[in-house]
């Protein structure tokens, strides 16, 4: 499938209510190439067939400031349940690639997503204000975040109040010149919680793991567990940013401070890393219970860690971590272990099935606790 290159062939639709405007420009936005809303039981799949967004002309319009509306993703599904996107190659998206928003029970697997590493904002997979999402076994090389979780922007996300939760990410390999392998935010005003990412390999990239937020966002990022990550030739291995300051308009509440807590990062190995970590909270709003363990990074910088306004613990971290996180957890001090899921996750499980088996009958097996 090859998209049209004339912008008039891409319909213009309303802004997402949790964003209040187009992500790039005030007002409306272009509809994605593959679009649906209020759907149930959706399968988008193929024998590794290719969907080409022919995004180069859109990237030129972006760089030349000649866009009339925010660029379109390749795939966007809204308010939909039981969605499978699998066994396809997506190339040259004008904007984000895969964007399930206000969705639940989403399985994304066996995708290849490609765009030039210089292409602007070509995020790979962006679950947004969505729940019970499994992303697995994908290769992504693009110009922005490889997998990024979102949940609305400033006052619009706070008001819409639709969080992203119960998200599993595993077996992802990728490269991005401009951003992160696994990212949360910066649009996180509806809240992000109960995220588990494992088996991640990131090469030749700016960031390995990143959380992005700012005053005015409100919301929260909590109960995040990232483990078994391999990094090679990455500028900053771990970054938590409290000053990512893009806002939709001047009406955001500067006193709406985000809560960042219960973040566990463990079993991380990195070679040819420039800086181990930059962990920077917000004045009057320190980020809490940040736990790092079994981290081994080969770092070029003589100042490997930069930490401010963060609290937490560490164990077996090399190079030695900043003083704020240098204490091991004591009695009553517990790092998030990745297993504190809602009650639904504790229900009896059917026998574990392979990815191939799940695809034969995807709606039978598409659930958060079977994607774990």
From TrEMBL:
Question: Gene3D superfamilies, alphabetically?
Answer: Single-stranded right-handed beta-helix, Pectin lyase-like
Molecular function as annotated in GO: polygalacturonase activity
Hydrolase keyword on record: yes
For this UniProt record, the keywords arranged alphabetically read as follows: Glycosidase, Hydrolase
Listed GO biological process terms? carbohydrate metabolic process
Q: Does the keyword Hydrolase apply?
A: yes
Top-level division of the source organism's lineage: Eukaryota
Q: Which InterPro entries match?
A: GH28_Enzymes, Glyco_hydro_28, PbH1, Pectin_lyas_fold, Pectin_lyase_fold/virulence
The similarity annotation says: Belongs to the glycosyl hydrolase 28 family.
Indicate what this protein is called per its UniProt record: Polygalacturonase
Give the source lineage, highest ranks first: Eukaryota, Viridiplantae, Streptophyta, Embryophyta, Tracheophyta
């Amino acid at each position: 499938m090859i998209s049209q290159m004339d912008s008039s062939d891409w319909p213009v639709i309303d802004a997402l209510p949790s964003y209040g405007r187009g992500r790039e420009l005030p007002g409306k936005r272009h509809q994605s190439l593959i679009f649906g809303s209020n759907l149930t039981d959706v399968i988008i799949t193929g024998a590794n067939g290719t969907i080409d967004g022919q995004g180069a002309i859109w990237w030129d319009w972006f760089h030349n400031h000649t866009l009339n509306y925010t660029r379109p993703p390749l795939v966007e599904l809204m308010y939909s349940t039981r969605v499978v996107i699998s066994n396809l190659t997506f190339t040259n998206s004008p904007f984000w690639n895969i964007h399930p928003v206000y969705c639940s029970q989403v399985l994304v697997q066996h995708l290849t997503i490609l765009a030039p590493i210089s292409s602007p904002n070509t995020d790979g997979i962006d679950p947004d204000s969505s729940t019970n999402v499994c992303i697995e076994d994908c290769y992504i090389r693009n110009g922005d975040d490889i997998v990024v979780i979102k949940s609305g922007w400033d006052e619009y996300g706070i008001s819409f109040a639709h969080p992203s939760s119960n998200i599993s990410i595993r077996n992802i390999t990728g490269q991005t010149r401009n951003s992160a392998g696994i990212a949360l935010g910066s649009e996180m005003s509806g809240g992000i919680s109960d995220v588990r990412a494992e088996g991640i390999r990131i090469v030749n990239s700016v960031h390995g793991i990143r959380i992005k937020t700012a005053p005015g966002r409100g919301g929260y990022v909590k109960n995040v567990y990232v483990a078994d990550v391999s990094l090679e030739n990455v500028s900053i291995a771990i970054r938590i940013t409290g000053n990512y300051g893009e806002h939709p308009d001047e009406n955001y509440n500067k006193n709406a401070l985000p809560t960042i807590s219960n973040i566990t990062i463990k079993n991380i190995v990195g070679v040819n890393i420039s800086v181990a970590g930059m962990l920077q909270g917000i004045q009057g709003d320190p980020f809490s219970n940040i736990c790092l363990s079994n981290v081994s990074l080969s770092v070029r910088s003589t100042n490997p860690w930069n930490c401010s306004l963060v609290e937490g613990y560490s164990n077996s971290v090399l190079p030695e971590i900043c003083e704020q996180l240098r204490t091991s957890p004591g009695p009553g001090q517990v790092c998030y272990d990745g297993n504190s899921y809602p009650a639904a996750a504790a229900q009896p499980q059917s026998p574990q099935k392979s990815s191939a088996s799940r695809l034969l009958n995807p709606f039978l097996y598409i659930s958060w606790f079977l994607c774990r």
